[in-house]
């Protein structure tokens, strides 16, 4: 039986897809399948997948409608591996990621996932930084999106919830929280992947991502009753970021949970308070300018 299924959604990924797939095929373990899901590409992505599949029998060519979540769900429906690893088409896995993760989980049957740190590389500036996972318990997943999509390797049998196909951003946060909250996970600070920041990927859309953070946070509050003082300040931050984000998303198409009404009300009050509001706007501008995802 295949040990690991690696799921790679690919939309107009002709420039980077081969790099991503090769980072999987050159892993120090070979018992794997690479499910590359073409989700509505209009460039040469399909041709590249066909070539990769013809060159290595471990690569499989799948199709889905447009959308990362639809592509990942197609991969999940097709996967045969005991373990699931996601990878975006413009990123890479470290050469020993799969071997080390599988070896650990085989030796620790009570663990559901092995989560690794990532290198973030800005392809425009060449700057690199290592982002370690700042949590030790899966219960922290209700607070924020701590896992890059390629950080966890997870047992397939624990994935009971699918990706929400109506979400443009932060669908991975909701997916990990719904499937891993309360589970026994292992967080390693070894680097397991390289995440490339380009002008083409969703990481550059700072404002829209922050609006969806507020939206997903509300969903999680409803599903898990995540309330109380440990969450309130974070909810206020999500609300402020939502209110200060560029109005690219029609609020009627992004119905926030009623659980976020109070933080939004307080946020609006703070923003119209002259000194406090100006300080908040200035601080967020600084954070945005320093954010490695760009503008």
Report on this structure:
The chain has 295 residues and is α/β, with parallel strands linked by helices. It folds into two domains: 4-203, Spore Coat Polysaccharide Biosynthesis Protein SpsA, Chain A, CATH 3.90.550; 205-290, no CATH class. The chain is built from nine helices and nine strands. It has helices at residues 17-25, 45-55, 68-78, 97-107, 171-180, 206-224, 229-244, 261-271, 274-290, and strands at 4-10, 32-38, 59-63, 83-86, 92-93, 113-122, 128-131, 152-155, 185-197. Strands 1, 2, 3, 4, 5, 6, 7, 8 and 9 form a nine-stranded mixed beta sheet that branches. Strand 6 and strand 7 (128-131) form a beta hairpin. Helix 6 (206-224) runs antiparallel to helix 7 (229-244). The longest helix is centred in the C-terminal third of the chain and has 19 residues, at 206-224.
